[in-house]
Design brief:
This protein is an all-alpha fold and 136 residues long. It has a single domain, classed as Up-down Bundle (Four Helix Bundle (Hemerythrin (Met), subunit A)).
Protein backbone atom coordinates (compact mmCIF):
# COMPACT_ATOMS: atom_id res chain seq x y z
CA UNK A 1 0.00 0.00 0.00
CA UNK A 2 1.27 3.47 -0.89
CA UNK A 3 1.77 5.82 2.04
CA UNK A 4 -1.20 8.12 2.32
CA UNK A 5 0.83 10.87 4.02
CA UNK A 6 2.87 12.38 1.25
CA UNK A 7 3.70 16.09 1.18
CA UNK A 8 2.94 17.75 -2.14
CA UNK A 9 4.22 21.18 -3.14
CA UNK A 10 0.68 22.35 -3.90
CA UNK A 11 0.03 22.17 -0.13
CA UNK A 12 2.40 25.13 0.36
CA UNK A 13 0.77 28.25 1.80
CA UNK A 14 3.83 30.40 1.06
CA UNK A 15 4.81 31.00 4.69
CA UNK A 16 8.04 29.05 5.35
CA UNK A 17 7.53 28.37 9.07
CA UNK A 18 4.01 27.07 8.49
CA UNK A 19 4.97 25.02 5.42
CA UNK A 20 7.80 23.41 7.42
CA UNK A 21 5.40 22.50 10.23
CA UNK A 22 2.86 21.09 7.76
CA UNK A 23 5.64 18.95 6.25
CA UNK A 24 6.51 17.67 9.73
CA UNK A 25 2.86 16.76 10.35
CA UNK A 26 2.80 14.76 7.12
CA UNK A 27 6.08 13.09 8.15
CA UNK A 28 4.71 11.99 11.53
CA UNK A 29 1.55 10.78 9.78
CA UNK A 30 3.73 8.73 7.42
CA UNK A 31 5.56 7.18 10.39
CA UNK A 32 2.24 6.27 12.00
CA UNK A 33 0.97 4.77 8.75
CA UNK A 34 4.19 2.72 8.31
CA UNK A 35 3.96 1.44 11.90
CA UNK A 36 0.34 0.39 11.39
CA UNK A 37 1.12 -1.26 8.05
CA UNK A 38 4.07 -3.14 9.59
CA UNK A 39 1.85 -4.40 12.41
CA UNK A 40 3.98 -2.74 15.06
CA UNK A 41 2.98 -2.87 18.68
CA UNK A 42 0.05 -0.85 19.92
CA UNK A 43 2.43 1.03 22.24
CA UNK A 44 4.53 2.20 19.26
CA UNK A 45 1.46 3.42 17.40
CA UNK A 46 0.07 5.10 20.53
CA UNK A 47 3.39 6.91 21.02
CA UNK A 48 3.40 8.09 17.37
CA UNK A 49 -0.21 9.24 17.62
CA UNK A 50 0.64 11.16 20.80
CA UNK A 51 3.58 12.80 18.99
CA UNK A 52 1.27 13.75 16.11
CA UNK A 53 -1.28 15.22 18.53
CA UNK A 54 1.32 17.21 20.50
CA UNK A 55 2.97 18.53 17.35
CA UNK A 56 -0.43 19.48 15.92
CA UNK A 57 -1.25 21.43 19.10
CA UNK A 58 2.12 23.22 18.89
CA UNK A 59 1.52 23.99 15.21
CA UNK A 60 -1.98 25.31 15.89
CA UNK A 61 -0.59 27.54 18.65
CA UNK A 62 2.01 28.93 16.21
CA UNK A 63 -0.64 29.69 13.58
CA UNK A 64 -2.93 31.24 16.17
CA UNK A 65 -0.14 33.48 17.53
CA UNK A 66 0.59 34.75 14.02
CA UNK A 67 -3.09 35.36 13.28
CA UNK A 68 -3.73 37.08 16.60
CA UNK A 69 -0.57 39.22 16.48
CA UNK A 70 -1.52 40.39 12.98
CA UNK A 71 -5.23 40.90 13.71
CA UNK A 72 -6.44 38.31 11.19
CA UNK A 73 -10.17 39.12 10.87
CA UNK A 74 -11.29 35.46 10.76
CA UNK A 75 -9.15 34.32 13.69
CA UNK A 76 -12.07 33.14 15.85
CA UNK A 77 -13.49 30.87 13.12
CA UNK A 78 -10.06 29.43 12.30
CA UNK A 79 -9.30 28.75 15.96
CA UNK A 80 -12.69 27.02 16.26
CA UNK A 81 -11.61 24.60 13.50
CA UNK A 82 -8.40 23.90 15.42
CA UNK A 83 -10.35 23.33 18.64
CA UNK A 84 -12.80 21.00 16.89
CA UNK A 85 -10.06 18.77 15.47
CA UNK A 86 -8.19 18.74 18.77
CA UNK A 87 -11.37 17.65 20.61
CA UNK A 88 -12.00 14.85 18.09
CA UNK A 89 -8.46 13.51 18.36
CA UNK A 90 -8.42 13.74 22.17
CA UNK A 91 -11.71 11.78 22.24
CA UNK A 92 -10.19 9.20 19.93
CA UNK A 93 -7.13 8.91 22.18
CA UNK A 94 -9.43 8.31 25.18
CA UNK A 95 -11.24 5.57 23.24
CA UNK A 96 -7.87 4.07 22.30
CA UNK A 97 -6.63 4.14 25.90
CA UNK A 98 -9.91 2.58 27.06
CA UNK A 99 -9.65 -0.22 24.50
CA UNK A 100 -12.80 0.94 22.68
CA UNK A 101 -11.04 1.47 19.35
CA UNK A 102 -7.79 0.80 17.49
CA UNK A 103 -5.64 2.80 15.10
CA UNK A 104 -7.03 2.00 11.67
CA UNK A 105 -6.74 3.04 8.05
CA UNK A 106 -10.04 4.90 8.51
CA UNK A 107 -8.57 6.99 11.35
CA UNK A 108 -5.45 7.76 9.35
CA UNK A 109 -7.56 8.65 6.32
CA UNK A 110 -9.58 11.05 8.51
CA UNK A 111 -6.37 12.71 9.77
CA UNK A 112 -4.91 12.98 6.26
CA UNK A 113 -8.11 14.31 4.71
CA UNK A 114 -8.50 16.82 7.53
CA UNK A 115 -4.90 17.98 7.09
CA UNK A 116 -5.30 18.34 3.33
CA UNK A 117 -8.62 20.17 3.63
CA UNK A 118 -7.44 22.43 6.44
CA UNK A 119 -4.24 23.38 4.60
CA UNK A 120 -5.78 23.83 1.17
CA UNK A 121 -8.94 25.59 2.30
CA UNK A 122 -8.64 27.22 5.72
CA UNK A 123 -4.91 27.95 5.82
CA UNK A 124 -4.96 29.26 2.26
CA UNK A 125 -7.52 31.85 3.37
CA UNK A 126 -5.23 33.41 5.99
CA UNK A 127 -1.95 33.01 4.08
CA UNK A 128 -2.38 36.00 1.72
CA UNK A 129 -3.38 38.18 4.68
CA UNK A 130 -0.29 37.22 6.70
CA UNK A 131 2.00 37.45 3.67
CA UNK A 132 0.70 41.00 3.04
CA UNK A 133 1.56 41.76 6.69
CA UNK A 134 5.13 40.63 5.90
CA UNK A 135 4.92 37.60 8.18
CA UNK A 136 6.47 35.35 5.52
Amino acid sequence: MVCMFEWKNNYSVGIPSIDAQHQTLFGIGAELFAAMEAGQAKSVMNRLLERLVQYTKSHFAHEERLMEKNAYPHFVAHKAEHDQLTAKVVAFQADLAGGRTVISVQLLRFIKEWLEYHIQESDRRYAPYLIAKKVA
